């Protein structure tokens, strides 16, 4: 059974950093792709970063490229999202998601399994 649990959200001032964690079970990074998304109230989910299963390729949305970094640790069954230079517009609920086969890496419809989300607030 695939499960995903996010943690690490919180409140930081503009310019600060946070590292989100996505603890997973029921699969390994050798065969599943994991991605991070975020969503504001009343808005659609935005794909941010993807760690491709098998080859470990990474993909980023233009809005976070150079500021956010996705990485994974199979031994710890965890995928991370390091977020630097945070902006007030980064305030969202952040989700991790997983799927066995993905074509459009940052499209939410590609992903079958989702965590419950963790709130990130960037404010002075």
Can you walk me through this structure?
There is one protein chain. This protein is mostly beta strands and 124 residues long. Helix content is 0%, strand content 48%. It contains no helices and eleven strands. The protein has strands spanning 3-7, 10-12, 18-25, 33-39, 46-51, 58-60, 68-73, 78-83, 92-99, 113-114, 118-122. Strands 2, 4, 5, 6, 9, 10 and 11 form a seven-stranded mixed beta sheet that branches. The protein has a four-stranded antiparallel beta sheet with strand order 1-3-8-7, with no helix packed on it. It is globular. The N and C termini lie far apart (41 Å).
| Helix vs. strand class | mainly beta
Q: Which percent band covers the strand fraction? A: over 45%
The overall pLDDT, averaged over residues, is: 96
Distance between the termini: 41 Å
The low-confidence runs, each spanning 5 or more residues with pLDDT under 50, are: none
Residues in helix, %: under 10%
Bulk shape = globular
Counting DSSP H or I runs of 4 or more residues, the number of helices is 0
Radius of gyration: 13 Å
Total strands: the figure is 11
User: Helix and strand string, N-terminal first?
Assistant: EEEEEEEEEEE
Main pleated sheet: 7 strands, mixed
